[in-house]
Automatic annotation (TrEMBL):
PROSITE patterns: GLYCOPROTEASE (PS01016)
Domain of life: Bacteria
Catalysis performed (reactions): L-threonylcarbamoyladenylate + adenosine(37) in tRNA = N(6)-L-threonylcarbamoyladenosine(37) in tRNA + AMP + H(+)
Pfam families for this protein: TsaD (PF00814)
Annotated compartments: Cytoplasm
One Gene Ontology molecular-function label: tRNA N(6)-L-threonylcarbamoyladenine synthase activity
Protein name from the UniProt record: tRNA N6-adenosine threonylcarbamoyltransferase
Cofactor requirements of the protein: Fe(2+)
Enzyme Commission identifier(s): 2.3.1.234
GO CC, any one term: cytoplasm
Gene3D superfamilies in the cross-refs: 3.30.420.40
UniProt keyword annotations, A-Z: Acyltransferase, Cytoplasm, Iron, Metal-binding, Transferase, tRNA processing
Species this chain originates from: Candidatus Thiodiazotropha endolucinida
Length: 344
């Protein structure tokens, strides 16, 4: 089966073609980073309008890159949620319309299921069952995955997601948008011994997360350092604060992953979502899983952030299982992943 995947849940316009026999044929991505940079975050109306402008040209480019025509497709998959409703409606309406005009089935895909399955695009994919940590700007979750669509939520964030905390702390440090990757880059120059940030909720049982307090601690640390330095922070001080913040987030994620692996007795861990591209997090997770006599799996960095390839793959699996959407479709800003059905 050959499926066109469309991702428009937020500020990335992603498209891809996945073939169940040949694998990923091609993918293309348009980023809206420059569009939203002046605002320091995503403006939903601007995101929707840009998806309208870019989606069809990107699909045409994709077909050209893949050397295929629409007639060779067997289905269309689009992100149906969770996400920004306006942005979701662009991809869903275009995807469903194209499927209708081509006479092929369409399927709405859960955005986080796409992230969770992104490591399946790699040459050495994980086998079911596994524990997945989905860590991005909007989500920080631990999920027990028995199979496609068979998910049990183990832990969730009670407030801010890890990626959101990265971005907001980066903004406090005066780093450009998007801040998470910039903070990680700056942290490489930092002294890990100068500042110490708390590790939220690690002294409590369970697998939930909380990162809002780290932002407040970062703000207080920055303000105290500014008073001590008599004004704007030096580059080294900013790097030291970035390093301390990153270490706190990584330690927290690491501890909860270890706790989940031991609690479920599953030796395979999958990391997905934008923050899973963080180099320090991957290094620490690899060491931890080796100590647990297990293994960790990640998507390649370009498939950690939002992309069409993960939607095409997830959609292909669901279409092969006989699922499809009626002409009347819907999108959801919120959508619990454990409510999804699965393969037998």
């Amino acid at each position: 089966m050959r499926v066109l995947g469309i991702e428009t849940s937020c500020d990335e316009t992603g498209v891809a073609v996945y073939d169940s026999e040949k694998g990923l044929l091609a993918h293309a991505l348009h980023s809206q980073v420059d569009l939203h940079a002046d605002y320091g975050g995503v403006v939903p109306e601007l995101a929707s309008r840009d998806h309208v402008r870019k989606l069809l040209p990107l699909v045409r480019q994709l077909f050209q890159d893949a050397g295929i025509e629409a007639a060779s497709l067997d289905g269309v998959a689009y992100t149906a949620g969770p996400g920004l409703v306006g942005a979701l409606l662009v991809g869903a309406s275009v995807g469903r319309s194209m499927a209708w005009s081509w006479g092929i089935p369409a399927i709405g895909v859960h955005h986080m299921e796409g992230h969770l399955l992104a490591p399946m695009l790699e040459p050495d994919p994980p086998a079911f069952p596994f524990i997945a940590m989905l860590v991005s700007g909007g989500h920080t979750q631990l999920v027990e995955v028995e199979g496609m669509g068979r998910y049990r939520l183990l832990g969730d964030t009670l407030d801010d997601a890890a990626g959101e905390a990265f971005d907001k702390t980066a903004k406090l440090l005066g780093l450009p948008y998007p801040g998470g990757p910039e903070l990680a880059k700056l942290a490489e120059q930092g002294d890990p011994e100068r500042f110490h940030f708390p590790r939220p909720m690690i002294d409590r049982p369970g697998l939930d997360f909380s990162f809002s307090g780290l932002k407040t601690f970062a703000l207080n640390t920055i303000q105290r350092a500014e008073r001590e330095e008599g004004g704007a922070l030096s580059v080294q001080t900013r790097a030291d604060i970035a390093r301390a913040f990153e270490e706190a987030v990584v330690d927290t994620l690491l501890l909860k992953c270890r706790r989940a692996v031991r609690q479920c007795g599953i030796k395979t861990l999958v990391l997905a979502g934008g923050v899973s591209a963080n180099r320090r997090l991957r290094q620490r997770i690899d060491v931890m899983m080796a100590g647990e006599e297990g293994a960790a799996y990640y998507p390649r960095p370009k498939f950690c952030t939002d992309n069409g390839a993960m939607i095409a793959y997830a959609g292909c699996r669901r279409l092969l299982a006989g699922e499809s959407e009626a002409l009347r479709f819907s999108v959801r800003s919120r959508w619990p992943m454990e409510s999804l059905g699965g393969e037998g």
